[in-house]
Each structure stands twice: as structure tokens, then as C-alpha cells.
Amino acid sequence: MAEKKFYVTTPIFYPNANLHLGHAYVTTLSDVVARYHRLAGEKTYFLTGSDENAQTVIQGAQKAGEDIGPFRDRTVKGFIELFKKLNISYDQFIRTSDEAVHWPGVQLLWKKMTDAGDIYKKEYEGLYCVGHEAFITEKDLVEGKCPDHGTVPERLKEENYFFRLSKYTLPVKQKIESGELEILPQTRKNEILSLLQEGLQDVSFSRPKTKVPVGIPVPGDETQVMYVWCDALTNYITALGYGRDDALYKEFWPADVHIIGKDILRFHAAIWPAMLLSAGEPLPKKILVHSMILSGGRKMSKTLGNVIDPQELLTEYGADALRYYFARHISPFEDGDLTREQFKETYNADLANGLGNLVARIIKLAEDNLPEGTRPEPKGFDSKYTEALERFEVNRALEYVMVHVAALDLKITTTQPFKLIKTDIEIGKKVIFDLTQELYLIGRMLNPFMPATSEAIKKAVIDNKKPENLFPRKE
Asked: Is 395 within a domain?
């Protein structure tokens, strides 16, 4: 039987500023998915990275008073450090400024789209939103501003290369309706189908090098660089060697799931599939569009003063506590809420008083009453757990684990092994041994969500030795 493969990607992020809580969330969500599929014995490839050939990055460097190269390197270093703190287990971090890894595949895809008759040059005048790195229309504006960025778009008149996106309205629509390209959840599928119903318009695929001095040169025209969406979206295949040594591409493409935010749905569910269809390449299997994190029921913003830096939570509570909150209390399919007060309350209730206390109690019982060398007998995972993770319902899967935690806590209360061991030593030891077996299973199930805690629990059971306080209570 052939080894099962799984390929999961995050969006790639602009290195124009430090990553915020939303970036930390989508990367952690993707890591949970990747770790689960590894746990299930599948050969898994997990990709993340940075989108560096963009006007927003140029502006970020100018604002910081730095040259673009050192600015990008410094900012990307911050991304990698954050991911290390979050225990993100990516297999590759791709940078779109990498001329050896990324550029050959993008230029190959461009040539294939050109050969298909889908790239042409024309003069265009329109409204350009730097925040989106996209041309937008008057109807997209609210009081003359981009509703997402609150900025007035620039009016640009340029001669650019365009992609014949309109040609692929019906083919993309058919792929989504048939389920060949699955969009999750249903609300986002309905949203993109509604857009397709209106019909797609051809899109600008390049900018003059005089306006955007960084980027991938258009094949055969050094005066133009590829527009960010053609460049950025292609990272999902260039990371696998497309246009170079394509062994990984043949092994892992099409992607099993792209995990993205709703603000880039159109680019991933309309433009990207159309590009692949034009080039004759397979489409990804699924696009999971995750929810937003609100704070106090409102979108995080500096103006409201409710922005929470992930570094702040990591410093105070640690990676597994933040990963736990993301996985348990932020549904991938509905907007979630996070405030400092909610986070502290959850940490103390679920982790300090709940999981951490349970581990300490059971391992102390084992340490005092079981012989050294007692080994766990791993059990299989319940179908409720695996089915939830297969459906990307990570919050339900972790909720199921915490049901096990509560049940084990109740079992200690009802069996009272600390008393039982004094009246019937053999039965008492059997009860304590069973508790360690179930705790070991909880440790294994926690692996995708809280990898460090998972390892600490499993080691404590195997070594028959109580670990350091996993989650000290916060006052």
C-alpha cells in the first residue's frame, strides 16, 4: 500500500512589520493540522514563508529608513523567531526574494500562461490599494476609502501585462461546484460562487519596474516586474521545486489544503485556480478559510487600543498555553474572541487547575506506588477525535481531549486510589496503573495542539516521575 501524503500551507506574510495575533493563529492552526497528519503516520509537508516582492514592503523599509534587503532580512528573522517560540514545525520557510528557489518556477508558470494565450499587454487606469496590493473598483470603497485598510486608493495609469482571468470564470466555478476544489466552510464557498456568478474580470499581472523596483522580471520584458499575486501565489509550487528539481512537486502536489484568511479568498479561490488551469497544472484539493480573532467583540485596532501582541502572551504564559487557546477557543469556522482577562481565566481554569493539576496528582500516585520500569500500553485514538481533525474541527478535537481530562479527574475522585492503595494494594496499584495509561493517551492526543506538554506528560508516565509544574497558576 502506497504511503499516504499530506501537503498543508499557510499564507505567506508581508515582511513590512512584525507579525500580529492573526498571523500567529493561522500558522498555529496549520501546524496543528500538520502535526495531526504526522501523528496519523502520513508523510507530511508543511510550508510557510514571506511575501517579499511587494510595494508594502518597500514602504515599510522607507518608513524605517533602511534599504529594502536588510529591512526584509531583519523582519523575516523576527517571523522565524516567533514561529520558533510557537513551536511551529514547518518543513520549509520560503522567501519570494529567493532568486534560486522561487523565481524559476514563477517564470515557468508565466511562460505556460503566455503559451496558452492568457497573458497580454495593455494600458490600464484604475484605483490601486497598496494594502491589498490590488486594483479595486469604486463600488468596493466606503466613503472613498478601502474598507479593510481605511486608506484612499491611488489612481494609477500604467501599461501592464494582464491575465485573461475572465476566460476562466466558468471553469473555476465548475471545479468548485463539483467539489474538485473544495472551499471550507460553506459560507465562504457561497461567497466565492457569488463572485463567480457576476463574472471575473481580467487582472493586472505586472507593474513597471520604475514604480516597483523589486520583483521577478517578466520573461522577455525587463521593464516590467511580476505583480505580487502572480508572484506570491506560485510559492505553493515553487517551494516544491517547480521549475527546478520537481521531485517534491511530483510527490506532494496538489496541496491537500491551503489555509488562509477571508481577506485573500478571491485570490486563492479564483485567480490561483485560473492560473493553474491556464498552465495545465492540477488544482489544490481544499481551501480552508479561517475565522477572525476579535477582542472584546471588536476587530483589533490600534485606534481602539485592543491589540494584543502574541509575543506578550508567549512571554507571560508560554507557547502551549497560547496554542491551547487558539485551538480550543477559536473555531476555524466562526469568529472567536480573545482578551487578556479571558486568556488568564482560561489558563488558570483549564491548564493550571485542570490539566496541570491532573498530571501532578496521577504521576505522584504512580511515583509513590508503582514499580520503576512500568511501561504504558498505547491505545488507539477514538474516532470522534480523528474525525474532528479530518474535518479541520480542531476546537472540537481538543474539546474531546479535555473531556478525557475531566473524566480522569472524576475517576480519581470516585475511586480514591490514595485510600484504596492502603486497604487493597493490588487493586489500588491496578487503578493507579490504569490512570497512567489513560494519562499517556491524553498526552498522545495533545501532540498536535500542545507538543511540549504532550512530550512532558508522556515522559512523566514512562519515567514514573512527576514533571515540573506544567502550568503555574497566575494571580
From this structure: yes
Instruction: Tell me, yes or no, whether 446 lies in a domain.
Output: yes
Q: Which grid cell sits at 1?
A: 500500500
pLDDT tens digit string along 371-380?
877 788 778 8
What's the domain count of the chain? Answer: 1
Q: Looking at residue 440, which CATH number applies to its domain?
A: 1.10.730.10
Q: What is the pLDDT of residue 272?
A: 98
> Which domain range does residue 405 map to?
309-463
One-letter amino acid at 156 equals L
Residues in the chain: 475
Residue 433's pLDDT band, with cuts at 50, 70 and 90, is very high
Give CA–CA dist 60/250, Å, rounded. Answer: 37
Give tens-digit pLDDT for 163-173.
Answer: 999 999 999 99
pLDDT > 70? residue 133 = no
367 part of a folded domain? yes
The stretch 386-394 carries a mean pLDDT of 97
Interatomic CA distance for residues 245 and 105, integer angstroms:
10
pLDDT of residue 213: 87
| C-alpha cell belonging to residue 393 | 474541527
Other CB atoms within 10 Å distance of the CB of residue 171: 14
Q: What are phi and psi of 261, to 5 degrees?
A: -95, 160
User: Residue for cell digits 514604480?
Assistant: 211
Report residue 406 as a C-alpha cell: 475531566
Beta-sheet strand order (sheet of 5-13): 92-95, 43-50, 5-13, 257-261, 286-290, 182-184
Q: How far apart are CA 197 and CA 241, in angstroms?
A: 35
User: Is residue 138 in some structural domain?
Assistant: no
User: What is the average pLDDT across 284-312?
Assistant: 85
Which of residues 234 and 467 earns the better pLDDT score? 234
Could you count the other beta carbons within 10 Å of the beta carbon of residue 184?
Answer: 18
b/e map 354-378, b = 16+ CB within 10 Å:
bbbbbbbbbbebbeebbeeeeebee
Q: Which cell goes with 416?
A: 480514591
pTM for the complete prediction?
Answer: 0.93
